[in-house]
Batch of 2 targets.
Target 1
Amino acid sequence: MTERTMKKNLGEYAEVCQQIAQLEAKKQDIAERIKAGMDGKDEIECGGFIARNNAVTTSRFDSKAFKAMYSCLYNDFCKPQTVCRFTVATA
């Protein structure tokens, strides 16, 4: 790939990332307005849409606490993993 093409692709990538960030912020703002309009209700139906705002409880494994208490056992069950992380930053 030529340097010119690479520069074009990187610029396009950065532009799309910026658009996504702007759209995510807009989405969050709209969600907050919808939640405010729900007046504390868990669910509303309007215009063919159903909006829900329910509390969800999940259980997550606390690996840091487990490692602190059972470091030998933690190390026995850890396995190395190699991943590729793709990032683009402005210079």
Note: The chain is about 55% helix and 10% strand.
Target 2
Amino acid sequence: MAQRILYDVPSLTIAYDYTDEWLYLDWQGNLTDEEVMKGALKLLELLRQERCTKVLNDNTHLTGLWADAARWGGEVFFPQLQEAGCRYFAWVHSPERYSQLSAQLAIQHTAAGIVFLTFQSLPTAAEWLRHQP
């Protein structure tokens, strides 16, 4: 897959995938609410810049509980992401339970018009996202 890295810090790498025309996020480590929010705002900026409608959000390397950021994501961030053009969001769960709970909290707290689906594996998430218009 042909990717260009747009953002790279220890907690998050964001790349644009030319083959599938989506943004790929690879979260790393035990993150604070502040790190999650900062990364989310960078995603928003890059989604606008690349004019893309799909996000592949990989949490397989993520641990920790970030409930405040999850609530903020659902109530504030996801509506902004939808306004910026995001239509499909494939979310690959962390194997770590607290991180899964935070992700579920974020999705439960949003009414944004984005189709969210959660997955246990990256290949399955990518396959679903490829079949979205």
Note: The mean pLDDT is 90.
